[in-house]
Amino acid sequence: MLSLGIDGGSSSAKWTLIDQTGAIKSKGSSNPIDGHLYRVESQEKMEKFLIELRRDLGTLNPNHITIGITGLGSVEKIEEYFLKAFPGSKLSIGTDVALAYRSEFKDGEGIYLYAGTGSIAVHITKAGEEINIGGWGYLLGDEGAGYWIGRAALRHLMTQIEELSSLDELSNAISRTIGGSDWPSIRQFVYSKDRSAIAGLTPTVANCSSNGSKSAAAILDNAANHLAELALRMERRLKIVNMPIAFGGGISSPALGIGQAIKSKLGRDIQINSHDHSLTAAKLGLN
Known about the structure:
Blueprint: E1 2-8, E2 13-19, E3 24-30, H1 40-57, E4 64-69, H2 75-85, E5 90-95, H3 96-104, E6 111-115, E7 119-124, E8 130-134, H4 146-162, H5 169-178, H6 183-192, H7 195-199, H8 202-210, H9 214-238, E9 245-248, H10 258-266, E10 271-272, H11 277-284
Helix pairs in contact: 3-11, 4-5, 4-9, 5-8, 8-9, 9-10
């Protein structure tokens, strides 16, 4: 019995293969995949990932594959891709955040707060129903996450440019990162790149905050406000207070300090998630 777990997130796709004893037989990571298989770009990513995965596994053939994937759309379409690469394997398919939830909690126990490029709060009921608050995407929501932080920094830079203000530490750092401090340079950076490039400005904001930039600190504090509110909205939805909370995703990195800020705003401890979700997925496949 071999069980393959896949954590298909927006920053990378990670996988772990274990045997019936739980021993790891193979492990790796690749470029990100997503469930938006109505898009040609997503189709190409999925095809490339499966070719690499099939090559890396060699003669090892999983009996069961458990997949947690961002942007889960048509389960049938995902099944089609995986069964072409792994005919005969049994498949279990869900969202990447539901997989992360099960790394931390049993069903019905708590709230998983995720912030990477986007943001969402998740609870899975004792009956197995997945409830989401947020996760609307960057056009409608994702407040407090990486894209939101990067966009806020760019807006701060543009405001100072338009008002002919002296650029502060944050604006100078963002200008250096994107390669210019005028509208044409900013426009080219924003509209010629993927969302992840804007989210990738978050470490620059964090570094400036650590160096005493009030502008950067204000952006990160506002991000923590939005993320704390996601958790509170979930509690209002469930009509339960003071639920256990786990915080995961790239924005939960201790270096950013946002997790600590959320703790302060909620007035309670939260668990910073550091589990290997692909291993969780593989273990679920043994059940």
